Amino acid sequence: MTKRGTFSSLKVRNYRLFAGGQVVSNTGTWMQRIAQDWLVLSLTGSSAAVGITTALQFLPMLLFGLYGGVIADRYAKRTLLLITQATMGLLGLALAVLTLSGTVEVWHVYLIAFLLGLATVVDNPTRQAFVVEMVGPQDVRNAVSLNAANFQTARIIGPAVAGVLIAAVGSGWAFALNGVSFIAPLTALMLMRESELHRIPRVPREKGQLREGLRYVAGRPDLIWPIVLVGFIGTFGYNFPIWLTAYVDDVYHAGAGTYGLLNTLMAAGSLLGALLAARRGTTRMRMLVGCALIFGVLEAAAALSPAFWLFAALLVPIGLFGLTFNTTANSSVQLATDPAMRGRVMSLFLMVFMGGTPIGAPIVGWVTDTYGARVGFLSGGLVSVGAAVVVGLVLARIGNLRVKVDLHRGKGHPLIAFVPREKLTAAA
After folding, report:
1. Fewer beta carbons within 10 angstroms: which end of the chain, N or C?
2. What is the C-alpha separation between 32 and 171, in angstroms, rounded?
3. Rg (alpha carbons) of the chain, rounded to whole number
């Protein structure tokens, strides 16, 4: 396995600017997420309402996600990001005004969550595809992992700050700081040197570009099955706002500070996973499937944990394997895709990962409200395990592989591995 320096992408000036702006804005985004979840729970007392808010924020990705990819392939990505980041900052400030003025109602939160989702439709695939333009193909894996580390660093800081702010002065100031935080990425984008970007020719406007992207993915098993796995886990396995608010409120009868702590523990594991992934020079399908399987098993174990300290401790490896799964899938799909198709393929990737939330979140929220937090969390873990097993077996069949269990393995040899069928037959 080829290893690179953990921070090799930061040698690129444009990427350094991008990363610096994103860590500020991501911190604000996590503050808003925590404050938004807690505000909705305070207004309604319902985990299902938290699920509806999450669903509305991701519904545009489900409905329009593929069009976002077409836009990302068609127009200058830096310009698109300036527009989307400014829009998201203004929406954060609007929610702050409503909350601080005491006029906020749950439908306001729903509406702003939906509008944020619309901005995300263009912002997410554009940011994903822009990574290659900043660092070039040789550092894509490293940059994707550092983006994840950046996001998880913010996930550690943001919930902690949000918990203090909510307890001290209320949710409104968390929304205000999030809106202001978008000044950082906007400044970074304006300071970038256009001449140092790795230009990818823009796709001219033509009919059928969306269908062309779908046909491209459908003909590539190395793209479609990782995306299918990402879809199942994103829809049913990543509903942590619903589960953690329910655990804090109904199981442990605690407050916003505990909710922030649980999010911080998960983020710490995710950050560790991102930094380990940044050193990895290659990605393999068995790692993708293995991480998905372990992620689901850990979720099920956490759901059945009898004590708070064990539940909290398990959130660290859940974060680690969940993040490793996500970065492995992201970088594998990006590198296997033709540059002219990257925006459309990444929009499909993000559509099934994030766009599945409007389907999964209300279902998971209803299960959690009806049967309790433990059953809700357990159901997400079991779906993740089932999806990992099925996709792993499909990939093995496509590659003419079989599972081999080696109980007498030597050093450096895995306990479980996919090996060619011919090799197994010869050994027998």
Report:
1. C
2. 8
3. 21
Helix boundaries (H) for 182-255: 183-191, 209-218, 221-236, 240-246
pLDDT(411) > 80: no
Residue 353 has which token pair? 């990962």
pLDDT at residue 22 greater than cutoff 80 = yes
Q: For residues 203 and 17, what is the distance between their CA atoms, to the nearest angstrom?
A: 26
Where b means 16+ CB within 10 Å and e means fewer, 384-417 reads bbebbeebbebbbeeeebbebeeeeeeeeeeeee
Query: Which pLDDT belongs to residue 1?
Result: 43
For residues 96 and 175, the answer to whether their CB atoms sit within 8 Å is yes
pLDDT interval class at 94 (50, 70, 90)? very high
d(CA 361, CA 350): 16
- Residue type present at position 67: Y
Three-class secondary structure of residue 288 per DSSP: helix
How far is Cα of residue 166 from the mean position of the Cα atoms in its chain? 25
Q: How far apart are CA 53 and CA 36, in angstroms?
A: 9
**Interval 267-287 mean pLDDT:** 75
Enumerate the β-bridge partners of residue 403: 418
Residues whose CB is less than 8 angstroms from the CB of residue 58 and which lie 6 or more positions away in sequence, other chains included: 117, 120, 354, 355, 356, 357, 358, 361
What is the per-residue pLDDT across 316-344, written as a single tens digit (0 to 9) for each? 999 999 888 888 887 778 777 777 777 77
| Residue 280, strand partner residues | 3
How far apart CA 46 and CA 48 sit, in angstroms, is 5
* Mean predicted lDDT score pLDDT of the chain: 82
CB 327 within 8 A of CB 148: yes
Phi, psi of 201 (to 5 degrees): -55, 135
Q: Does residue 413 carry a pLDDT above 60?
A: no
User: DSSP of 241-276, one letter per residue?
Assistant: HHHHHHIIIIIS---HHHHHHHHHHHHHHHHHHHHH
- Residue 207 pLDDT exceeds 60: yes
Report angle CA 97, 98, 100 to the nearest 5 degrees.
65
Give the β-pairing of 416-420 and 401-405.
Answer: antiparallel
Global pTM? 0.69
**Weakest mean pLDDT among 100-104, 125-129, 154-158, 203-207:** 203-207
408: tokens are 């007498």
